[in-house]
Amino acid sequence: MEKASSKRGRQEENGGEGKDARQRTLAYAQPCPRMQLCREYMCSLNLEAAYFNPACDRCFCVTCASAARIPDILEQHNQHGHPYEVPKGWCGFGLDVPRRAHTLEVFDKWAVAFHGCPGTALASILDEGQLMTPGATLLDGTTLPNRLTRGGDDRIGLYTSPSIKYAELDIYTQPSEWQGHTVRIVLQCRQKMDIRPPQLRIERETIGWQGRFGKAAISQHFPNAEIERVTTAHNSIIPYRVLVSMDIQTREEEEEAKKNVRNVQAAALNARQATTAFEASEEKIKIAQANLAALVQAEKEHKAALAKVQKEKKTAQNEANAAVAGKRHVATAQSAAQDGLVRALCTFVTDQNILRTLQPSIQALIFNQVTQLNFHGWRIDWKTRAGLEGVAALAAAVASSRSLTTANLRGCGMSAKGLAVLATQGVAKSSSLSLLDLSCNKDMLKGEEGRVACTALAQALASCSSLRKLNLRECNMSTEVFIVLATQGVAKSPLLSCLDLSCNEDMLKCGVGQAASTALAKALAVCSSLQKLHLDGAWRGRRGGVGGS
Fold first, then answer.
1. C-beta of residue 471 within 8 angstroms of C-beta of residue 410
2. Distance CA 62, CA 167 (A)
């Protein structure tokens, strides 16, 4: 007779914890179509009825599991300490377990485990009365072949999992077709877990899942690194239920479906890009053909210039042929794009004097030909509209450059509005700029416009992924402007290592400098990258200096 403790151990599988859950399951004991279909399949296998215990049949299909309010995980708090994943979507047919299962109290002391097997092997397993390892001699005298195990004799053993999602995979169950349904078989077992390694090991998945699907989890409840159990103790696993599923979607099929969706999306994107490229090629062909037609007409009208027209005709023909070839082999020319950007930025600057001054630097930046930008001592009136156009073009070039590491704007007369444009459109978007020298620009941070410009500089400092050194020496920075720089820029900068604020005499002056000192101290406390700070001549009176905590 089954012990009371074993009965308690089975109660969890009836839909939850204890008597109330058992009553819920019995209350829903209506004929289940899914259970009946699985029972018909089991009958078709012609298995010995003596192997089964119908009193322990359980239906975990979606309808029955929902009605019984069965959770996804059971036995979290059992004395063996190993929870398992409830086989929702499956129908279970109880096995007549051996007497030793009751004596050993396996339903209380042993953990639940799942072992996927082909339907063709089920009869042999029931005949043997236990799981067998590859190489074992069966009752019919044959040797069990090694179907899946790789890695030598050290890997030979019995493989189980606490996750039904792992055990149901095709590599283990080898699903079969029956009356238009896809059928899978998994054995629900009790497994002794207090066995020391190497006789019992908990390991990662060994089916090549990571190579196919990356870091995608096989089960929501067990990590891929601890989802498989392997043991060499043959008698430590006792099957007690045959689980049957019809037409379930495995995790493998789910991930393959996701992969197919991604492939379709990628193919659609490639198709759109190819269409765009094709249309661009068609447009080029039309333009080239129009040019060719114009040159042919010019040849007819201007016979005196026949030689020149013929040369141009040949050039146009070559261009047309190149455009047709480009229709089949579309390739974006980086230099053409850079030329276009230079022309666009130069067109943006209306003042020709400023354009002549800035054009060489803009072109060198866009073509990634310089690492240093030196405007030291330049005297461009950055306050005018033309000056702001120039600084906007220069900022766009700085943002585009991948070679620029140093920008020297020392004493160049930079205005507050110019600094705001340079910071937001250039420095904030640069991926290579590491040193920015704005020293000796004494009108740059004055008044309300200076505060706005400093706000833009602080936001650029916080968002720029490359800026490490900032020089604001002799910029007549006020206390209010400095507080903005410290709280919104220095405190949030990811890489700033050197900050020079020397000779800003009003920045930490007596009376109001204490608030600036406190702001700087708080910024230093959170900016882990700052290594050098220059404050020579940055305060007046006795209340200067860095304060705060």
1. yes
2. 19
Instruction: State the Rg of the chain over Cα.
Output: 39
Distance CA 201, CA 369 (A): 60
Check the CA dihedral 472-477-481-487 and report its sign. positive
* 334-534 maps to CATH 3.40.50.2000: no
Per residue in 296-328, is it b (16+ CB within 10 Å) or e — as a string? Answer: eeebeeeeeeeeebeebbeebeebbeebeebbe
* Of 229, 177, 42, 54, residue with least CA distance to 122: 42
Task: Please state, in angstroms and rounded to a whole number, the distance separating the CA atoms of residues 346 and 164.
Answer: 66
Find all residues with CB under 8 Å of 42, minimum gap 6, and list them: 93, 242, 244
Least confident of 52-56, 149-153, 198-202, 417-421: 149-153
| pLDDT (tens digit per residue) in 351-377 | 788 778 887 888 788 888 888 888 766
Residue with the two structure tokens 């608030």: 515
| pLDDT, averaged across the chain | 82
| Domain edges within the chain | 4-248, 264-328, 334-534
User: What's the CA gap between 68 and 26, in Å, rounded?
Assistant: 9
Contact 196, 203 (CB under 8 A): no
At residue 68, the 3 state secondary structure works out as coil
What is the b/e burial string over 479-496, where b = at least 16 CB atoms within 10 angstroms of the residue's CB?
Answer: bbbbbbbbebbbbbbeeb
CATH number assigned to the domain covering 4-248: 3.90.228
State the Cα–Cα distance between residues 156 and 73, nearest whole angstrom: 29
Q: Spell out the alpha helix ranges (H) of 370-478.
A: 385-400, 416-425, 447-463
H helices then E strands: how many in the chain? 19, 17
As beta bridge partners, residue 176 has 183
Amino acid, res. 305: A
For 487-546, the DSSP string reads IIIGGG-SS--EEE-TT-TTTT-TTTHHHHHHHHHHHHHH-TT--EEE-TT---SSS-S-
What does pTM read for this prediction? Answer: 0.50
Full DSSP string of 125-167: HHHHTS---TTPBPTTSPBPP-SS--SSGGG-SEEEBS-HHHH
Is 7 in a helix, a strand, or coil? helix
